[in-house]
Amino acid sequence: MLDPLGIDSFCEDIYLAMIADPSLAVSDLAERLGRPDTEIRAGLDRLARLALLRPSRDEPGTLRAVHPARGLSILIRRQQQELERKRRQVDALVGREQDSGAWTIERLEGLDAVQSRLEELTAQATREVMTIVPGGPQPADVLEAARPLDAEIAMRGLTLRSLYQDSMRSDKANMDYASWLTGLGVQIRTAPLVPPRMILLDRELAVTQLDPVQRRPGASVVRHPGVLNSLIALFEQSWDAARPLWAGDEPAPEGAGPTENERALLRMLSRGLTDEAVASRLGVSVRTVQRRMESLMTRLGAASRFEAGVKAAAHGWL
User: Fold this and answer.
1) Can you count the helices (H) and strands (E) in the chain?
2) Same structural domain for residues 227 and 116?
C-alpha cells in the first residue's frame, strides 16, 4: 500500500506491527514476521531515517512508531520535496545557458523576510542541514523562536550538524537547548572561533548573513557552485577542528600548555586586537578575556603581556 511513497512491503509490515503493539522488541518482530534479526534491524533503520520511528521518551534506547496520520503526512511531504528537487535540477539544466543570471545571489531584507524564506527553504531540504552559529550564547528569545523549526527538521530524519562557539557552554539556557537538540539527533560541536553565521541545505544552497560586519538584519541565499563549494569546505574544515559538545575544557594547570580558547586569545592579542575586540570575537566578556590572560601570564611566569607574548612564542604556543 505504501510502495508509491517509498516504503516496501517488508518495512510496511514492521511499521504496522509496531503500531499495533508498541512493546514489540526486535526478537518479537523477527518471530512475528518470520525474518532474521539482521533484516528486522535494517528495516527499523530505514523507518527511522524516514522519520516514521522516533526515540521513546518513556523508555530511552527504544523506538516508537509515529501516529499513522503523521507518518502518511511525512511520506507525502518527502515525495513532494523529492519531486521539487528534481524539478529544480531540470530547470537548472535547461535554463543555465539561457539565463546568465541563473546564479545571482538572492537578497533578503529584514528579519521577517529571512524567517519566512528560511522556513520555505528548509522545508525543501531532503538530506542534510549544516549550521554555524557565532556570537557566543544566544538570547533566550532567539532560542525559543528557533525551536519549532529545529524540531520540525529533526522529525524529518535529516542529518543535522551545528557548530557553535565555545563560550555558549557557560550559559545554562544555551546548554539546555543544545541538550534538547542532541536528544533529537542533532550533532553539535564548538570551537573558540567560528566563521560567520550560515546555513547549508543539502549542499545545494547556503543562507549567509547579508552583512556580518555591520550585522544588518537580512540574509543572502547563495546557489553559485563555486561559492557554495568554498562555503562547504569552510564548514567541514571548521567542523573537523571543533570538539563535540560534551567534551570538557577544564582550565589548564600551572605549567601546562594552552587550551584552544587560550591559544585563540594569544593569537588575537599578538595581532594587536584590544580586549574588547577579542571578547567580541570569542563571544565572552572583557573580564573573561582579562582573567584568561592573567592565568596565562602566571603559567608563563611573565610580568607583562609583552613578556607573556615573547615566552608564548618561545614555547611554540603561537
Assistant:
1) 12, 10
2) yes
Summarised one tens digit per residue, pLDDT across range 225-237 is 888 899 999 999 9
CB count within 10 Å of CB 71 equals 21
67-92 pLDDT, tens digit per residue, is: 877 777 777 777 777 777 777 777 66
Give the Å distances, CA to CA, from 148 to 36, 154, 173, 206, 303. 39, 10, 17, 21, 51
Is residue 118 domain-resident?
Answer: yes
Supply the angle between the helices 260-270 and 275-282 in degrees, to the nearest 10. 140
What's the pLDDT at 199? 94
Where a domain ends, among 70, 87, 117? 70
Residue 147 has which C-alpha cell? 525551536
What burial class does residue 15 get, using C-beta atoms within 10 Å of its C-beta: 0-12 exposed, 13-18 middle, 19+ buried?
buried
Q: Which helix (H) or strand (E) holds 31?
A: helix 26-33
Cell numbers for 190: 564548538
Residue 235 is part of which domain span?
A: 102-244
Q: What letter represents residue 44's amino acid?
A: L
Residue with cell 527511522: 48
What pTM was computed for the model? 0.53
Is there a single domain that holds both residue 235 and residue 197? yes
Assigned C-alpha cell, 288: 573573561
